[in-house]
Amino acid sequence: MIRHLSKADYRVMPWANGRGQTTELIRVEGPEGMLWRLSVASVVEDGAFSIFPGIERNLTVLSGPGFDLAGPGLRLRADPLVPVAFAGDVVLGAEGVTAPVTDFNVMTARRLPKPEVWVAGPGRILPGSGRAAAGETGQTLCLFAPAAGGGLAAHDLLIADRPVDLAVRAIAVRLAVPFPEV
Question: Is the pTM of this model over 0.85?
């Protein structure tokens, strides 16, 4: 099964810390709260990131020069099209923001296996196998198109439980969870 989502399906909401907005592409809930979420946000100035206890995060700069993610004893560089993983409950902030940045975010519950996030070129992309969490079967592949092409508009999202023939460059996310029933 493949689900195709576009801007008409997304929800704009304020950041948890109130200092900006995020566009939530998809959010999947479980009995104990959020399982995973994909979103896009803009970072326009230095400032604190929202804290998400029990959540693993992965951020990929889509446009703009990037910035540093810095906190006590930790400094990570967020460069264009290079995924950066970090814990959602670590105090971090954006530093060195010299121009507006748009980023793609993956958030997963810490109890799940960490997602794989990479920049995929045109070609056949597979959901994968063998990494499902205890009690779960199947995997979900999400492909986010930063730019239009190959039948996708900019910022379209494909969610699949089977191989996808991709005609454009995309941010690929492999989740060790079944295809969502949302």
Answer: yes
